[in-house]
Protein backbone atom coordinates (compact mmCIF):
# COMPACT_ATOMS: atom_id res chain seq x y z
CA UNK A 1 0.00 0.00 0.00
CA UNK A 2 1.40 3.33 -1.05
CA UNK A 3 1.56 6.02 1.55
CA UNK A 4 3.57 9.18 1.09
CA UNK A 5 5.14 10.86 4.08
CA UNK A 6 5.30 14.60 3.52
CA UNK A 7 7.87 15.97 5.91
CA UNK A 8 6.63 18.81 8.09
CA UNK A 9 9.68 20.63 9.39
CA UNK A 10 8.13 24.06 9.66
CA UNK A 11 9.11 25.15 6.18
CA UNK A 12 6.39 26.23 3.87
CA UNK A 13 3.46 24.98 2.04
CA UNK A 14 2.73 21.31 2.67
CA UNK A 15 -0.92 21.56 1.76
CA UNK A 16 -0.27 21.85 -1.96
CA UNK A 17 1.76 18.65 -1.95
CA UNK A 18 -0.85 16.82 0.11
CA UNK A 19 -3.61 17.94 -2.25
CA UNK A 20 -1.66 16.91 -5.36
CA UNK A 21 -0.79 13.48 -3.94
CA UNK A 22 -4.41 12.97 -2.91
CA UNK A 23 -5.57 14.03 -6.36
CA UNK A 24 -3.48 11.14 -7.74
CA UNK A 25 -5.43 8.78 -5.50
CA UNK A 26 -2.55 8.13 -3.12
CA UNK A 27 -2.67 8.57 0.62
CA UNK A 28 -0.57 11.42 2.00
CA UNK A 29 0.63 11.49 5.56
CA UNK A 30 1.90 14.77 7.00
CA UNK A 31 4.85 13.54 9.04
CA UNK A 32 5.65 15.82 11.94
CA UNK A 33 7.89 13.36 13.75
CA UNK A 34 10.56 10.96 12.47
CA UNK A 35 8.60 8.05 13.95
CA UNK A 36 5.99 8.58 11.20
CA UNK A 37 8.44 7.43 8.52
CA UNK A 38 7.93 3.79 9.44
CA UNK A 39 4.38 3.96 8.08
CA UNK A 40 5.40 5.44 4.73
CA UNK A 41 6.38 3.82 1.43
CA UNK A 42 7.58 7.07 -0.16
CA UNK A 43 8.99 10.30 1.23
CA UNK A 44 8.56 13.85 -0.03
CA UNK A 45 10.61 16.72 1.37
CA UNK A 46 8.95 19.97 0.30
CA UNK A 47 10.01 23.40 1.39
CA UNK A 48 10.15 27.03 0.66
CA UNK A 49 12.52 29.15 2.64
CA UNK A 50 16.14 29.69 3.31
CA UNK A 51 18.72 26.90 3.19
CA UNK A 52 20.23 27.45 6.64
CA UNK A 53 16.87 27.68 8.44
CA UNK A 54 15.73 24.51 6.75
CA UNK A 55 18.82 22.54 7.77
CA UNK A 56 18.52 23.84 11.31
CA UNK A 57 14.84 22.87 11.50
CA UNK A 58 15.58 19.39 10.13
CA UNK A 59 18.37 18.99 12.65
CA UNK A 60 16.42 20.31 15.65
CA UNK A 61 13.58 17.94 15.01
CA UNK A 62 15.79 14.87 14.61
CA UNK A 63 14.95 14.37 10.96
CA UNK A 64 18.43 13.98 9.51
CA UNK A 65 19.38 10.49 10.77
CA UNK A 66 15.79 9.29 10.35
CA UNK A 67 15.61 10.41 6.72
CA UNK A 68 19.04 8.92 5.99
CA UNK A 69 17.94 5.60 7.42
CA UNK A 70 14.63 5.56 5.51
CA UNK A 71 15.91 6.83 2.14
CA UNK A 72 19.50 5.63 2.00
CA UNK A 73 19.30 2.65 4.40
CA UNK A 74 15.88 1.19 3.56
CA UNK A 75 15.80 2.61 0.03
CA UNK A 76 12.37 4.22 0.26
CA UNK A 77 11.91 6.47 -2.79
CA UNK A 78 12.62 10.06 -1.81
CA UNK A 79 11.67 13.28 -3.61
CA UNK A 80 12.92 16.70 -2.59
CA UNK A 81 10.98 19.61 -4.07
CA UNK A 82 12.52 23.07 -4.62
CA UNK A 83 14.38 23.81 -1.38
CA UNK A 84 13.90 20.12 -0.56
CA UNK A 85 16.02 19.30 -3.62
CA UNK A 86 18.65 21.87 -2.75
CA UNK A 87 19.05 20.38 0.73
CA UNK A 88 20.30 17.16 -0.88
CA UNK A 89 23.51 19.00 -1.77
CA UNK A 90 26.63 18.97 0.35
CA UNK A 91 26.87 22.75 0.51
CA UNK A 92 24.46 25.68 0.23
CA UNK A 93 25.64 29.21 -0.55
CA UNK A 94 22.47 31.13 0.41
CA UNK A 95 23.37 33.84 2.97
CA UNK A 96 26.79 32.31 3.71
CA UNK A 97 28.10 28.79 3.33
CA UNK A 98 26.03 26.07 5.00
CA UNK A 99 26.21 22.30 5.19
CA UNK A 100 23.42 20.36 3.47
CA UNK A 101 22.39 16.71 3.71
CA UNK A 102 25.16 15.79 1.28
CA UNK A 103 23.33 12.83 -0.26
CA UNK A 104 24.21 14.09 -3.73
CA UNK A 105 27.55 15.85 -3.98
CA UNK A 106 27.31 19.39 -5.20
CA UNK A 107 26.72 23.01 -4.29
CA UNK A 108 23.68 25.27 -4.29
CA UNK A 109 24.58 28.58 -5.88
CA UNK A 110 22.77 31.77 -6.73
CA UNK A 111 21.43 32.03 -10.27
CA UNK A 112 23.34 34.56 -12.35
CA UNK A 113 21.46 34.71 -15.67
CA UNK A 114 23.37 36.05 -18.65
CA UNK A 115 21.17 38.15 -20.90
CA UNK A 116 19.18 41.31 -20.98
CA UNK A 117 15.94 41.45 -19.04
CA UNK A 118 16.44 38.12 -17.25
CA UNK A 119 15.42 38.51 -13.65
CA UNK A 120 16.02 36.69 -10.38
CA UNK A 121 14.06 35.11 -8.72
CA UNK A 122 13.39 32.84 -11.67
CA UNK A 123 9.61 32.81 -11.37
CA UNK A 124 7.20 31.20 -13.76
CA UNK A 125 6.86 28.49 -16.36
CA UNK A 126 9.95 27.28 -18.16
CA UNK A 127 10.76 24.38 -20.46
CA UNK A 128 12.40 21.37 -18.84
CA UNK A 129 14.65 19.10 -20.86
CA UNK A 130 15.10 15.64 -19.34
CA UNK A 131 18.62 14.27 -19.77
CA UNK A 132 18.29 11.09 -21.87
CA UNK A 133 19.09 8.01 -19.84
CA UNK A 134 19.08 9.85 -16.51
CA UNK A 135 16.36 10.26 -13.90
CA UNK A 136 15.28 6.65 -13.64
CA UNK A 137 11.89 7.20 -15.27
CA UNK A 138 10.97 10.43 -13.43
CA UNK A 139 10.08 12.08 -16.75
CA UNK A 140 8.58 8.98 -18.35
CA UNK A 141 5.81 9.87 -20.81
CA UNK A 142 6.68 13.57 -20.92
CA UNK A 143 7.89 15.36 -24.03
CA UNK A 144 11.18 17.23 -24.13
CA UNK A 145 10.54 20.89 -23.31
CA UNK A 146 7.37 20.53 -21.21
CA UNK A 147 6.76 23.63 -19.07
CA UNK A 148 7.02 23.39 -15.30
CA UNK A 149 6.55 26.02 -12.61
CA UNK A 150 9.68 27.42 -10.95
CA UNK A 151 10.13 29.92 -8.17
CA UNK A 152 13.69 30.14 -6.87
CA UNK A 153 16.86 32.21 -6.75
CA UNK A 154 19.38 29.41 -6.19
CA UNK A 155 20.14 26.24 -8.13
CA UNK A 156 21.84 22.90 -7.49
CA UNK A 157 25.16 22.35 -9.26
CA UNK A 158 25.93 18.62 -8.95
CA UNK A 159 29.56 17.63 -8.78
CA UNK A 160 28.91 14.59 -10.98
CA UNK A 161 26.93 15.61 -14.10
CA UNK A 162 25.46 12.11 -14.20
CA UNK A 163 23.26 13.12 -11.24
CA UNK A 164 21.53 15.81 -13.29
CA UNK A 165 18.23 14.36 -14.53
CA UNK A 166 16.94 17.43 -16.37
CA UNK A 167 18.08 20.90 -17.31
CA UNK A 168 16.37 24.24 -17.81
CA UNK A 169 17.58 27.48 -19.38
CA UNK A 170 17.42 30.85 -17.67
CA UNK A 171 20.28 32.82 -19.17
CA UNK A 172 22.37 29.65 -18.93
CA UNK A 173 21.51 26.04 -18.23
CA UNK A 174 20.86 24.96 -14.67
CA UNK A 175 19.96 21.60 -13.21
CA UNK A 176 16.16 21.30 -12.95
CA UNK A 177 16.12 17.80 -11.48
CA UNK A 178 18.58 15.44 -9.83
CA UNK A 179 18.52 11.69 -9.34
CA UNK A 180 20.79 9.25 -7.59
CA UNK A 181 19.37 5.77 -7.12
CA UNK A 182 15.91 6.24 -5.61
CA UNK A 183 16.70 9.75 -4.38
CA UNK A 184 15.15 12.43 -6.60
CA UNK A 185 14.91 16.18 -6.52
CA UNK A 186 13.06 18.70 -8.64
CA UNK A 187 13.82 22.41 -8.61
CA UNK A 188 10.38 23.05 -10.12
CA UNK A 189 7.15 22.44 -8.24
CA UNK A 190 5.47 19.32 -9.65
CA UNK A 191 2.53 19.88 -7.29
CA UNK A 192 1.92 23.26 -8.97
CA UNK A 193 2.74 22.25 -12.54
CA UNK A 194 -0.67 20.89 -13.39
CA UNK A 195 -0.73 17.93 -15.79
CA UNK A 196 3.02 17.70 -16.45
CA UNK A 197 3.70 17.96 -12.72
CA UNK A 198 1.18 15.29 -11.86
CA UNK A 199 2.90 13.01 -14.34
CA UNK A 200 6.23 13.49 -12.58
CA UNK A 201 4.61 12.79 -9.21
CA UNK A 202 2.87 9.73 -10.63
CA UNK A 203 6.19 8.49 -12.05
CA UNK A 204 7.85 9.00 -8.68
CA UNK A 205 5.06 7.13 -6.91
CA UNK A 206 5.47 4.37 -9.50
CA UNK B 1 13.20 30.04 -21.96
CA UNK B 2 11.12 31.51 -19.20
CA UNK B 3 7.59 32.31 -20.37
CA UNK B 4 5.81 35.50 -19.51
CA UNK B 5 2.91 34.84 -17.18
CA UNK B 6 -0.74 35.76 -17.57
CA UNK B 7 -2.31 36.00 -14.12
CA UNK B 8 -5.94 36.30 -13.05
CA UNK B 9 -6.56 38.31 -9.90
CA UNK B 10 -9.54 37.43 -7.74
CA UNK B 11 -10.68 40.04 -5.24
CA UNK B 12 -12.44 38.85 -2.12
CA UNK B 13 -14.59 41.23 -0.14
CA UNK B 14 -16.57 40.17 2.92
CA UNK B 15 -16.64 36.56 1.74
CA UNK B 16 -17.60 37.07 -1.89
CA UNK B 17 -15.64 37.76 -5.06
CA UNK B 18 -16.07 41.29 -6.38
CA UNK B 19 -15.27 43.43 -9.38
CA UNK B 20 -13.48 46.67 -8.59
CA UNK B 21 -13.49 50.12 -10.13
CA UNK B 22 -11.14 52.89 -9.05
CA UNK B 23 -10.47 50.94 -5.85
CA UNK B 24 -13.74 52.34 -4.50
CA UNK B 25 -16.69 50.71 -6.21
CA UNK B 26 -17.10 46.96 -5.72
CA UNK B 27 -19.71 44.91 -7.49
CA UNK B 28 -20.43 41.40 -6.26
CA UNK B 29 -19.45 38.58 -8.60
CA UNK B 30 -20.27 35.73 -6.25
CA UNK B 31 -18.97 32.53 -4.75
CA UNK B 32 -15.33 32.60 -3.58
CA UNK B 33 -14.52 29.18 -5.06
CA UNK B 34 -16.20 28.49 -8.35
CA UNK B 35 -13.93 30.84 -10.29
CA UNK B 36 -10.90 29.11 -8.76
CA UNK B 37 -12.12 25.74 -10.02
CA UNK B 38 -12.67 27.05 -13.52
CA UNK B 39 -9.26 28.73 -13.65
CA UNK B 40 -7.52 25.62 -12.35
CA UNK B 41 -9.22 23.52 -15.01
CA UNK B 42 -8.00 25.97 -17.64
CA UNK B 43 -4.41 25.47 -16.46
CA UNK B 44 -3.84 29.18 -15.92
CA UNK B 45 -0.26 30.16 -15.10
CA UNK B 46 -0.83 31.38 -11.58
CA UNK B 47 -3.51 32.89 -9.36
CA UNK B 48 -3.47 35.99 -7.19
CA UNK B 49 -6.18 35.97 -4.56
CA UNK B 50 -6.52 39.20 -2.64
CA UNK B 51 -8.74 39.82 0.33
CA UNK B 52 -9.79 43.48 0.29
CA UNK B 53 -12.35 43.17 3.09
CA UNK B 54 -12.39 46.00 5.61
CA UNK B 55 -14.67 44.35 8.15
CA UNK B 56 -14.44 40.97 9.84
CA UNK B 57 -17.61 39.38 8.56
CA UNK B 58 -17.12 36.85 5.75
CA UNK B 59 -20.50 35.72 4.55
CA UNK B 60 -21.51 34.03 1.29
CA UNK B 61 -25.08 35.19 1.98
CA UNK B 62 -26.61 31.83 1.25
CA UNK B 63 -26.80 28.44 2.88
CA UNK B 64 -27.10 26.16 -0.14
CA UNK B 65 -23.44 26.11 -1.23
CA UNK B 66 -21.74 22.74 -1.28
CA UNK B 67 -18.77 24.08 0.65
CA UNK B 68 -20.80 25.35 3.62
CA UNK B 69 -20.20 28.74 5.14
CA UNK B 70 -16.63 29.98 4.94
CA UNK B 71 -16.47 32.43 7.79
CA UNK B 72 -12.79 33.45 7.88
CA UNK B 73 -10.04 34.12 5.32
CA UNK B 74 -8.25 30.92 6.41
CA UNK B 75 -11.44 28.88 5.87
CA UNK B 76 -11.61 30.33 2.38
CA UNK B 77 -7.91 29.64 1.74
CA UNK B 78 -8.35 26.01 2.87
CA UNK B 79 -11.17 25.59 0.38
CA UNK B 80 -9.30 27.45 -2.38
CA UNK B 81 -6.14 25.39 -1.94
CA UNK B 82 -8.10 22.17 -2.32
CA UNK B 83 -9.21 23.13 -5.82
CA UNK B 84 -6.23 25.24 -6.92
CA UNK B 85 -3.53 23.18 -8.67
CA UNK B 86 -1.64 26.24 -9.82
CA UNK B 87 0.69 28.56 -7.98
CA UNK B 88 -1.24 30.68 -5.50
CA UNK B 89 -0.34 34.08 -4.08
CA UNK B 90 -2.50 35.26 -1.19
CA UNK B 91 -2.85 38.88 -0.12
CA UNK B 92 -4.77 40.87 2.42
CA UNK B 93 -4.61 41.17 6.20
CA UNK B 94 -1.02 39.99 6.43
CA UNK B 95 0.79 42.26 8.88
CA UNK B 96 3.32 39.98 10.59
CA UNK B 97 5.63 37.04 9.95
CA UNK B 98 3.20 34.92 11.97
CA UNK B 99 0.45 35.88 9.50
CA UNK B 100 2.72 34.93 6.59
CA UNK B 101 3.36 31.53 8.16
CA UNK B 102 -0.36 31.03 8.74
CA UNK B 103 -1.26 31.63 5.09
CA UNK B 104 1.74 29.79 3.63
CA UNK B 105 1.18 26.75 5.84
CA UNK B 106 -2.48 26.62 4.74
CA UNK B 107 -1.74 26.51 1.01
CA UNK B 108 -0.37 29.81 -0.29
CA UNK B 109 2.86 29.50 -2.26
CA UNK B 110 3.58 33.20 -1.92
CA UNK B 111 2.08 36.00 0.08
CA UNK B 112 1.73 39.62 -0.84
CA UNK B 113 1.96 42.57 1.52
CA UNK B 114 1.14 46.18 0.73
CA UNK B 115 0.44 48.81 3.41
CA UNK B 116 2.09 46.67 6.10
CA UNK B 117 5.29 46.46 4.03
CA UNK B 118 5.40 50.22 3.60
CA UNK B 119 4.75 50.97 7.26
CA UNK B 120 6.96 48.17 8.59
CA UNK B 121 9.60 47.63 5.91
CA UNK B 122 11.58 45.17 8.06
CA UNK B 123 8.66 42.78 7.55
CA UNK B 124 9.97 42.19 4.01
CA UNK B 125 13.39 41.06 5.18
CA UNK B 126 11.99 39.00 8.04
CA UNK B 127 9.63 37.24 5.65
CA UNK B 128 12.38 36.67 3.09
CA UNK B 129 14.70 35.22 5.72
CA UNK B 130 11.98 32.84 6.87
CA UNK B 131 10.32 31.82 3.61
CA UNK B 132 12.80 32.95 0.94
CA UNK B 133 12.54 36.08 -1.20
CA UNK B 134 10.61 34.19 -3.83
CA UNK B 135 7.65 33.90 -1.43
CA UNK B 136 7.42 37.61 -0.64
CA UNK B 137 5.55 39.72 -3.19
CA UNK B 138 5.34 43.41 -2.38
CA UNK B 139 2.18 45.04 -3.74
CA UNK B 140 2.30 48.67 -4.74
CA UNK B 141 -0.85 50.68 -5.49
CA UNK B 142 0.07 53.75 -7.50
CA UNK B 143 -1.75 56.77 -8.80
CA UNK B 144 -0.75 59.76 -10.90
CA UNK B 145 0.28 62.70 -8.75
CA UNK B 146 1.33 65.85 -10.60
CA UNK B 147 3.89 64.88 -13.22
CA UNK B 148 4.82 61.67 -11.48
CA UNK B 149 3.27 58.92 -9.41
CA UNK B 150 2.54 58.36 -5.77
CA UNK B 151 2.24 55.23 -3.64
CA UNK B 152 -1.13 54.83 -1.93
CA UNK B 153 -1.90 52.68 1.10
CA UNK B 154 -5.03 51.27 2.76
CA UNK B 155 -6.71 50.25 -0.48
CA UNK B 156 -5.92 53.56 -2.16
CA UNK B 157 -7.22 55.80 0.63
CA UNK B 158 -3.95 57.09 2.12
CA UNK B 159 -1.21 58.83 0.19
CA UNK B 160 2.15 57.53 1.38
CA UNK B 161 4.27 60.36 0.01
CA UNK B 162 6.64 58.07 -1.90
CA UNK B 163 7.46 57.39 -5.53
CA UNK B 164 6.48 53.87 -6.64
CA UNK B 165 9.76 53.28 -8.51
CA UNK B 166 11.80 54.30 -5.46
CA UNK B 167 9.68 52.19 -3.16
CA UNK B 168 9.96 49.18 -5.50
CA UNK B 169 13.76 49.51 -5.55
CA UNK B 170 13.79 49.75 -1.76
CA UNK B 171 11.50 46.73 -1.43
CA UNK B 172 13.86 44.74 -3.65
CA UNK B 173 16.83 45.78 -1.53
CA UNK B 174 14.96 44.64 1.58
CA UNK B 175 14.36 41.20 0.11
CA UNK B 176 11.15 41.24 -1.95
CA UNK B 177 10.98 38.60 -4.67
CA UNK B 178 8.41 40.26 -6.92
CA UNK B 179 6.49 43.50 -7.24
CA UNK B 180 2.75 43.46 -7.88
CA UNK B 181 2.06 46.88 -9.35
CA UNK B 182 -1.48 48.19 -9.61
CA UNK B 183 -2.61 51.41 -11.21
CA UNK B 184 -5.45 52.90 -9.18
CA UNK B 185 -6.28 55.32 -12.01
CA UNK B 186 -6.79 52.49 -14.48
CA UNK B 187 -8.59 50.06 -12.15
CA UNK B 188 -11.86 49.03 -13.76
CA UNK B 189 -11.54 51.46 -16.69
CA UNK B 190 -10.62 49.02 -19.45
CA UNK B 191 -8.36 51.67 -20.98
CA UNK B 192 -5.23 49.50 -20.91
CA UNK B 193 -2.25 49.47 -18.57
CA UNK B 194 -0.50 52.60 -17.37
CA UNK B 195 2.60 51.84 -19.45
CA UNK B 196 4.63 54.75 -18.16
CA UNK B 197 4.14 53.55 -14.59
CA UNK B 198 5.13 49.98 -15.50
CA UNK B 199 8.25 51.17 -17.35
CA UNK B 200 9.39 53.33 -14.44
CA UNK B 201 9.02 50.57 -11.87
CA UNK B 202 10.48 47.82 -14.08
CA UNK B 203 13.53 49.97 -14.82
CA UNK B 204 14.07 50.66 -11.14
CA UNK B 205 14.18 46.96 -10.16
CA UNK B 206 15.73 43.68 -11.25
CA UNK B 207 13.04 41.45 -9.75
CA UNK B 208 9.92 40.48 -11.72
CA UNK B 209 7.15 43.07 -11.95
CA UNK B 210 3.54 41.93 -12.30
CA UNK B 211 1.46 44.65 -13.94
CA UNK B 212 -2.22 45.13 -13.13
CA UNK B 213 -5.00 47.60 -13.69
CA UNK B 214 -6.82 48.73 -16.80
CA UNK B 215 -6.96 45.72 -19.10
CA UNK B 216 -10.05 46.04 -21.29
CA UNK B 217 -8.93 44.08 -24.29
CA UNK B 218 -6.69 41.03 -24.63
CA UNK B 219 -4.34 43.05 -26.83
CA UNK B 220 -3.48 45.22 -23.79
CA UNK B 221 -1.42 42.40 -22.29
CA UNK B 222 1.42 42.54 -24.80
CA UNK B 223 1.78 46.29 -24.20
CA UNK B 224 2.38 45.59 -20.51
CA UNK B 225 5.13 43.10 -21.34
CA UNK B 226 6.73 45.51 -23.80
CA UNK B 227 6.73 48.20 -21.12
CA UNK B 228 8.87 45.91 -18.95
CA UNK B 229 6.51 43.70 -16.93
CA UNK B 230 7.48 40.04 -16.47
CA UNK B 231 3.89 39.04 -15.92
CA UNK B 232 0.57 40.63 -16.80
CA UNK B 233 -2.39 40.44 -14.50
CA UNK B 234 -6.00 41.51 -14.65
CA UNK B 235 -9.13 41.02 -12.61
CA UNK B 236 -12.37 42.11 -14.23
CA UNK B 237 -11.73 40.77 -17.73
CA UNK B 238 -11.54 37.24 -16.29
CA UNK B 239 -15.14 37.55 -15.12
CA UNK B 240 -16.70 39.11 -18.16
CA UNK B 241 -15.01 37.81 -21.29
CA UNK B 242 -15.36 34.41 -22.86
CA UNK B 243 -12.34 32.06 -22.69
CA UNK B 244 -10.30 34.69 -20.93
CA UNK B 245 -7.22 32.52 -20.57
CA UNK B 246 -6.87 30.96 -24.01
CA UNK B 247 -7.86 34.11 -25.89
CA UNK B 248 -5.55 36.20 -23.72
CA UNK B 249 -2.71 33.78 -24.42
CA UNK B 250 -3.48 33.83 -28.14
CA UNK B 251 -3.29 37.61 -28.17
CA UNK B 252 0.10 37.46 -26.44
CA UNK B 253 1.42 34.81 -28.83
CA UNK B 254 0.20 36.82 -31.83
CA UNK B 255 2.16 39.79 -30.48
CA UNK B 256 5.28 37.66 -30.28
CA UNK B 257 5.32 37.23 -26.49
CA UNK B 258 6.41 33.79 -25.21
CA UNK B 259 3.68 32.23 -23.05
CA UNK B 260 2.35 28.76 -22.31
CA UNK B 261 -0.50 28.17 -24.71
CA UNK B 262 -3.89 28.19 -23.03
CA UNK B 263 -6.38 25.37 -22.91
CA UNK B 264 -9.99 25.85 -23.86
General description of the model:
The complex is a heterodimer of chains A (206) and B (264). With 206 residues, chain A is an alpha/beta fold. Chain A has a single domain (3-205), classed as Rossmann fold (3-Layer(aba) Sandwich), CATH 3.40.50.880. Chain A contains five helices and 13 strands. In chain A, the strands form two sheets. Chain A has a nine-stranded mixed β-sheet. Chain A has a four-stranded mixed β-sheet with strand order 6-5-7-10, covered by helices on one side. The longest helix of chain A has 12 residues, at 194-205. Chain A is globular and about 50 Å long. The mean pLDDT of chain A is 94. With 264 residues, chain B is an alpha/beta fold. Chain B has a single domain (5-254), classed as TIM Barrel (Alpha-Beta Barrel). In chain B, 33% of the residues lie in helices and 25% in strands. Chain B has ten helices and twelve strands. In chain B, strands 1-4-5-6-7-10-11-12 form an eight-stranded parallel β-barrel, surrounded by eight helices. In chain B, α2 (73-83) links the parallel β4 (47-51) and β5. In chain B, α6 (164-174) runs parallel beside α7 (195-204). Chain B is globular. The model of chain B has no long low-confidence stretch (mean pLDDT 94). At the A-B interface, α1, β8, β9 and α5 of A face α2 and α5 of B.
